[in-house]
């Protein structure tokens, strides 16, 4: 019997230093997902819009808290007009606005204020990300938390009786954006074209994963996956299984 089309494999283990259980989505973390911004990314509007080169920046970024906001604001202060298309707008009104009870990056002309648009001499894409690459540093040091974490997602739940924490690490899905996510014409963790990276996610995004969960839990995860490499074929990601099913159905129909 075939597994459900949306089945994922998981691994869990106890944190060696905290009263916490880690639960990792192995199907996503062993997949070859990679960011396809600037190539096959269709954006997250209600219709495909690759020509806008907005990626997932159309709605701005919610800051996770004061430390996140302060770091991004400091980073913004280091950008020049040549690096950041909307720096004059930010100088006049600030890079953030209050939205839904918290701070979020300001929207300019329909997308995040940090997004350089096609045709800008400094290059299209996130000004913070581009600046980090140009300076030879990790984008994590400059970008909002949600931006460098995507498409990784960590959710913590606490047992009310014991205080024990369960931390789940998986992929961002449409439902995590609320009702708006259902309106996206395209989402990268559902798109087969985004699963053609050179390395599995847990290696390609090793710095991000380690920052998200801590060095020791990441090391334990990587050791587990390395130990089973070659002995066990990972369950293909649902996006690839669905593509295979569509191709098989099309082949059957053609006969």
Helix content: 25-40%
Shape: globular
Strand order, largest beta sheet: 1-2-10-9
Number of strands: 10
Task: Report the uncertain regions.
Answer: none
In whole angstroms, the N-to-C terminal distance is 24 Å
Strand % is 15-25%
| String of helices and strands | EEHHHEEEEEEHHEEHHHH
Biggest sheet layout: 4 strands, mixed
Rg, rounded, reads: 20 Å
Q: What structural class do you assign from the helix and strand content?
A: alpha+beta
Mean pLDDT figure: 93
Structure annotation, total helices: 9
Written description of the protein model:
Helix 7 (206-213) crosses helix 8 (215-228). With 255 residues, the chain is α+β, with helices and mostly antiparallel strands. It has nine helices and ten strands. The longest helix is centred in the last third of the chain and has 17 residues, at 238-254. A hairpin with a 2-residue loop joins strand 5 and strand 6. Strands 1-2-10-9 form a four-stranded mixed β-sheet.
Comma- or semicolon-separated keywords:
255 residues, alpha+beta, 4-stranded mixed beta sheet, two-stranded antiparallel sheet, 10 strands, globular
